Amino acid sequence: MIEVEVVFALPDKATVLSVELPKGSTAEEAVLKSGIVDKCPEIDMKNLTLGIWNRTCKLDTELKAGDRVEIYRPLIADPKEARRKRAEKAKEEGRANKITGAKVKSDDPRVC
C-alpha cells in the first residue's frame, strides 16, 4: 500500500485529503477513492486535469508513495491572449514602441 495526498484549491480555500491505495494505482483512482469529488462539487470529472507535484500528468499515471495529486481548475483566460492585450494596451498608452514593442525610453532621469 502507498499513501498519497489529493488536493483541490480554490482562491479562498484548499482541500487536502490523504488516501491509502494499493501499489500500481493511478492518479484518477486516487481522486475517486479520496472522496474529494463529494466534498468539492466544483470538480468536473468529465474534464479532469491532474498534476503530481506541479507537473501535469495523465489520468493513468502510476503513483508512488508520497505523491501529491493536484486537481487543476480550468483557466478563465487564455494566457497568450491576455499577453497580447497587455502589449496592445502598452502601445496605445505610449509605454511601448508601436513597431517593435520595446519599452519607450523616457527623458525623465528618475525613470529607467
UniProtKB/TrEMBL annotation:
Gene3D superfamilies associated with the record: RnfH-like
Region Disordered, residue ranges: 82-112
Any Pfam family matching the protein: Ub-RnfH
Family designation: Belongs to the UPF0125 (RnfH) family.
NCBIfam families, per the entry: PRK01777.1 (NF002490)
Protein name listed in UniProt: UPF0125 protein WCN91_11255
UniProt organism field: Pseudoalteromonas qingdaonensis
